[in-house]
Amino acid sequence: MKLRTIINISIASTLSSKVCLEENGAEWHARGASVLYNFLMLRRSSRPLIVPIGWGDLGLWGSFLVRILPICAVLSAAGCTGFSSSSHPMVVKRAQMHMGTVVSITAVASDKESGYRTIQAGFDEIKRLEGLLSTWIASSELSHVNTAAGLHPVKVSPETFEIVAKSIEIARLTDGGFNIAVGPAVEAWSVTERQDIPADEELERLKDVVDWTNIRLDQDEQTIFLPRRGMRIDVGGIGKGYAADRAATAMKRMGAQGGVVALSGDIKTFGVLPHAAGFPVGIKHPRQEGRVIAVIDLRDEAISTAGDYERFFERNGIRYHHILDPKTLQPARTCQSVSVIGKEGTLVDGLDTGIFVLGPERGMALVERLPEVEAVIVDDQGRVMVSSGLRARLRELR
Question: Do 51 and 187 fall within a single domain?
Answer without folding.
Answer: no
